[in-house]
Every structure is written in structure tokens, then in C-alpha cells.
Design a protein that fits this description.
Tetrahydropterin Synthase, Chain A, EF-Ts_dimer_sf, three-stranded antiparallel sheet, about 20% strand, translation elongation factor activity
């Protein structure tokens, strides 16, 4: 009995997995069908992936990457999601993330809808993302886009694991481009990556959110038996603590908690005029 030998090696399997992010068995089957021809196997994986696209629509895409670019005082950041960390670290997925960012920058887009409708290689970027997801064998989506402008913009990307692309990204725009302002912008961007503020100033916090927090603070103080004459001061103190958690300029600065972020910026002769923070899946 004669057994037919495969026309490919373990190295061929590894290389195609890195190109596509596809599973081991899917790659082996494609190489078998293609008689070892890597390019033909790539096409087989793509076609089979497109056929399964509908089945993937309901899946959760909570892994992925964040990519950012700054040019001429404009910062643009995108988040691209996939289903597994295996695909998130695949070269092909990282290349796709860079493509999405490049199209966003080239078209100076301001919203996700415009980005996905932008032309790329004779089709829309949205269609290209769908096709690349087919090759990868997972649901792949461009989840969100941020754009900020300032005299100087700092982009900070953070890897939560050395094996994965950036999972956290921050754009920090300030109103000055002095050396001190640039240093402060970067330091505050790093701070923002770790402390995740929701708003720049207290004025941006919705009034209903503030009132709800004030009500909770009042009810809690009363339940604790605090004296009536001290309630107002206690409530305001707790509200200040709430602002320190969610408002960037009120947060204690990561490198020196004795001062606020706002003080760090003012000492550098600048102020934040806009910021954005993404964490993959959040």
C-alpha cells in the first residue's frame, strides 16, 4: 500500500498560519487541497472563510488592537477587534489594523461610518475588513475611531502583554508645543492609560450623573448617622472624591499623587484641549 506524502513541511504550515491566523487543521486541509501551493491554499482559506462569515456575525469580538497616528496637530486612533488573542497577535491582523489606521489618516475621517465607507483598493474599507476576517476565520470589526486636534498631540500605546499588539491607546492634545508642554502631554497620556478618566473637566460630567452621586452621598451619610449640620460638607467632600476618580484634571497625578493632573499641566504652561482613551474590549 502506497501512502501519498504531503507536498509541504511543518515550516510551511507555520508560515501560512502566521500569514492568515487560521487554525492548524484549516491550514493543513487547505495545503492538502492545494497540493502544497501556499498561495492557492491562502485563496482556499479566504473563500471558505467568506462562506462562513454569516455564521460569525453573532460571535463576540473582544480581543484586538489599538493603533494611533499623529500628523500636523491631528491625532487619529482606531480599535480593531477579533475573537481570540491568537488572531490578535497574527501578522496579518496587525497589518489589517495598520491599514485601517492608514485609511483613516489619509482621508482625515471624523467618524466610523465615513471610515468604513472610504475607498481602499477598489472597494470600501468595510468590505476589505470583512474579507480579511474571512481569511483569519474570525469575526473582525473596526469598533471605534477617535480624532483630536491641538497645538501638540501625544499618542501613547501600551501593551498589556509582550506577545500582543497594543491593547490600550491614548491621544492627548494640548494647547502649546513648548518642550515642557510636550513632556507634560506625554506624562499625562501615560497617566490616562492607567487611570482611565471619563471626562476632561467637571463641567463635562452630565448634570444627572452629578445629582445622582450627590443623592447617594447624602443617603449614605444619613444611614451612617452623620449629624444633620455636617451633611452638606460631607456630601460635598464625597462628591469631590467622585470627581477625582472620573475627571482627568482633578485626578492625583500618577507620578506625584500630591498634585493634580491640572496642576502638572498649568505648571508646564499648557492645558488639555482634547483627549481619547481606548482599551480593547472595554
Amino acid at each position: 500500500m502506497c501512502t501519498r506524502m504531503a507536498n509541504y513541511t511543518a515550516a510551511d504550515i507555520k508560515a501560512l498560519r502566521e500569514r492568515t491566523g487560521a487554525g492548524m487543521m484549516d491550514v493543513k486541509k487547505a495545503l492538502d487541497e492545494a497540493n502544497g501551493d501556499a498561495d492557492k491554499a491562502m485563496e482556499i482559506i479566504r473563500v471558505k472563510g467568506l462562506k462562513g462569515a454569516t455564521k460569525r456575525e453573532g460571535r463576540s469580538a473582544v480581543e484586538g488592537l489599538v493603533a494611533a497616528s499623529v500628523k500636523d496637530g491631528v491625532g487619529i486612533m482606531v480599535e480593531v477587534n477579533c475573537e481570540t488573542d491568537f488572531v490578535a497577535k497574527a501578522d496579518k491582523f496587525i497589518e489589517l489594523g495598520n491599514t485601517v489606521l492608514e485609511v483613516a489618516v489619509a482621508n482625515d475621517v471624523i467618524d466610523l461610518e465615513t471610515l468604513l465607507a472610504a475607498e481602499y483598493n477598489g472597494r470600501t474599507l468595510g468590505d476589505h475588513v470583512t474579507e480579511e476576517g474571512a481569511v483569519l476565520g474570525e469575526k473582525v470589526v473596526v469598533r471605534r475611531l477617535a480624532r483630536v486636534e491641538g497645538t501638540y498631540v501625544d499618542a501613547y500605546l501600551h501593551r498589556t502583554s509582550k506577545d500582543l499588539p497594543a491593547q490600550v491607546g491614548v491621544l492627548m492634545a494640548v494647547g502649546s508645543d513648548s518642550e515642557q508642554a510636550q513632556t507634560a502631554a506625554h506624562d499625562v497620556a501615560v497617566h490616562t492609560a492607567a487611570y482611565a478618566p471619563s471626562y476632561l473637566t467637571r463641567d463635562e460630567v452630565p448634570a444627572e450623573t452629578v445629582e445622582n452621586e450627590r443623592r447617594i452621598a447624602d443617603e449614605t451619610a444619613r444611614a451612617e448617622g452623620k449629624p444633620e449640620k455636617a451633611l452638606e460638607k460631607i456630601v460635598e467632600g464625597r462628591l469631590t472624591g467622585f470627581f477625582k476618580e472620573i475627571v482627568l484634571v482633578d485626578q492625583p497625578f500618577a507620578k506625584d499623587p500630591k498634585v493634580t493632573v491640572g496642576k502638572v499641566l498649568s505648571d508646564a504652561g499648557t492645558e488639555v484641549v482634547g483627549f481619547a482613551r481606548f482599551r480593547v474590549g472595554n
